[in-house]
Automatic annotation (TrEMBL):
GO terms for biological process: carbohydrate metabolic process. Residues 1-21 form the signal peptide. Keywords: Hydrolase, Signal. This is Glycosyl hydrolases family 2, TIM barrel domain. One of its GO terms (molecular function) is hydrolase activity, hydrolyzing O-glycosyl compounds. InterPro entries: GH (IPR017853), Glyco_hydro_2_cat (IPR006103). SUPFAM superfamilies: (Trans)glycosidases. It comes from Daejeonella rubra. Residues 158-284 form the Glycoside hydrolase family 2 catalytic domain.
Length: 352
């Protein structure tokens, strides 16, 4: 595993696939670094309110919950977080384009009140294959992200007849907010190729970068590297991202090797997913390292809730009992820190 990691990390710098894969419009290194220097150290969490099981429950009009969003972003502000990474969903847009954009605007206003900028995510290859508009299922006891849904879903992601509607979605939403300073960055595709899709996600990944470049927003665009042996994806994503983003849930010695390789590209970096306690990826051993390296730090997640991300990916607890150690998340639903020493550390790193 570790030898493969080292070999594939080297491939990130040497692979020849990327020569013909760059889409016009990428920011220069100088522009990207100037943009990064204008921000304080970026840190925060992947956010979904505790009352939502998935992206659809967060964004549909019938279940949009600004009161909970306001309360929970207040807790994030209290420990010094300044950035949230938030998933959108094309089905919520399809159901109600105007209302969907209005709710995004409402969310952004709440986040701005708490001095928080947002990274929005468009597409996602993780978890359940098909999402349905309407009332969402109840969580399955003890199962991590039991109700999270892919976007645009499977097989929809590879059916090119769907691409025109997806293009409309991306361009309408991004175009509407393309100059909005409340948005930090557009994350175009979460973990492309996950859920066994492999290279079959590359056409949609390529398209969403093309659509984003045609919009040409004021904010940078990116798609995070997440699996080190996905050579085609890694090359394409790094070659076309203004800011390098990546995921790493490994122990710090392996995480550091990843960031050392990625830093060779000379671009600002944000780790958009980390912190899985039972994988030895913790606030104590990873967040100070990221700050020292001047790399943004966005952990998963914020408040324990319907997503069940206190449970590990592959270790369900069928009766829904509390795990011995929480996998993700920082706060109980009432705002009490899971581990006060963690929130104390986060405050210290943020000079709170």
């Amino acid at each position: 595993m570790k030898l493969r990691y080292i070999i594939t990390a080297v491939l990130l710098m040497t692979i020849s696939f990327h020569v013909n894969a760059q889409i016009a419009g990428k920011w220069s290194i100088e522009k990207a670094n100037k943009w990064y220097a204008e921000h304080p150290w970026i840190n925060g969490a992947n956010f979904i309110p505790s009352t939502a099981i998935n992206q659809l429950e967060m964004w549909q009009a019938s279940s949009f919950d600004p009161k909970t969003i306001d309360r929970e972003l207040g807790w994030a502000e209290g420990i010094g977080f300044n950035t949230m990474r938030v998933y959108l969903h094309s089905l919520a847009y399809k159901q109600d384009p105007k209302g969907f954009k209005s709710r995004i605007d409402q969310y952004l206003s709440i986040a701005e009140k708490h001095h928080i900028q947002t990274i929005f995510v468009f597409f996602d290859d993780c978890w359940n294959k098909i999402g349905l508009i309407g009332k969402q299922p109840a969580p399955k006891p003890g199962i991590h992200n039991s109700g999270w849904v892919q976007d645009p879903g499977d097989p929809a992601y590879k059916e090119t007849d769907n691409f025109p509607a997806l293009e409309t979605y991306v361009k309408d939403v991004m175009g509407h907010f393309s100059k909005d300073k409340r948005i930090l960055l557009w994350d175009l595709y979460n973990e492309p190729g996950n859920s066994g899709k492999l290279d079959s996600s590359l056409p949609l990944l390529t398209k969403v970068f093309q659509w984003a470049r045609e919009v040409n927003p004021d904010q940078p665009i990116s798609a995070g590297v997440w699996r080190w042996d996905f050579e085609k994806f890694n090359a394409f994503q790094i070659l076309n991202s203004d800011i390098i983003t990546y995921h790493d849930y490994e122990a710090p010695e392996w995480h550091k090797r990843a960031l050392q390789v990625l830093k060779t590209h000379g671009r600002p970096m944000i780790c958009t997913e980390y912190m899985a306690r039972t994988n030895n990826s913790t606030f104590a051993n990873s967040m100070p390292m990221l700050q020292k390296e001047n790399i943004g730090a966005i952990n998963w997640g914020l408040v324990s809730g319907k997503t069940n991300t206190i449970y590990a990916w592959d270790k369900p607890i069928k009766d829904g009992a509390q795990p011995e150690v929480w996998f993700h998340d920082i706060f109980w639903p009432n705002g009490t820190p899971y581990r006060k020493e963690e929130t104390d550390l986060i405050k210290k790193l943020n000079n709170k």
